[in-house]
Write a structure and sequence with these properties.
Blueprint (H helix, E strand, L loop, with lengths): L12 H18 L20 E7 L7 H4 L9 E3 L10 E2 L11 E4 L6 E9 L3 E13 L7 E10 L3 E7 L2 E7 L1
Parallel strand pairs: 1-9
Antiparallel strand pairs: 1-4, 2-5, 3-4, 5-6, 6-7, 8-9
């Protein structure tokens, strides 16, 4: 018995024509360039957040207060003065040999220019206030015409030293 083609199906060459047309249309629309020539749109040019590492030293014994008194970081509220945001907590670095060993490390505001203050309350030790100024520095980069620089960190009412390191500030406070 001889196989006959069904009369209901058109020949195979008619299937290829719509497939070729569909492929051509998808290539043409998929390869179209946008009319907007802004090369900064897809560029991510943000730096990592500024960190403050504050080490608390006992003025009489010279010991690191956070390590010697075994204070938990979760019990130290860090509050931005004048902002309606909840208190944050930091992390106490307990890795021996780390450059910020025994320091309370936390993020500070570095996205807008202006003056900022943080209050740090350490249970059974006391409270300190960290203040600093964010300055807007112009750059030659058209995608990021300026950046924010954290300057003039001050601990009010206590002796302190400041070192800038990378994208952070290391502060040693004597209580």
């Amino acid at each position: 018995m001889k196989n006959k083609r069904s009369t209901y199906f058109p020949p195979m060459k008619f299937y290829y024509l719509p497939l070729i047309t569909l492929c051509a249309l998808s290539l043409v629309t998929g390869c179209r360039k946008s009319k907007d020539g802004n090369r900064c749109d897809d560029l991510l040019s943000e730096r990592q957040p500024t960190m403050a590492a504050v080490t608390f030293i006992d003025g009489q014994t010279g010991e690191n207060i956070l390590i010697s008194k075994n204070i938990d970081a979760l019990s130290i509220p860090i509050t931005q003065v004048g902002a309606d945001i909840p208190s944050q907590t930091g992390v106490i670095v307990k890795q021996t040999g780390a450059p910020v060993y025994g320091a309370l490390v936390f993020h500070i505001m570095d996205v807008k220019k202006g003056a900022y203050k943080y209050t740090i309350d350490i249970p059974d030790v006391g409270s300190i206030t960290l203040s600093y100024v964010n300055k807007e520095i112009k750059t030659d980069n058209e995608c990021k015409p300026y950046y924010i620089d954290v300057t003039d960190p001050v601990i009010e009412g206590h002796q302190f030293t400041v070192k800038e390191a990378g994208s952070g500030v290391m502060i040693t406070v004597t209580l």
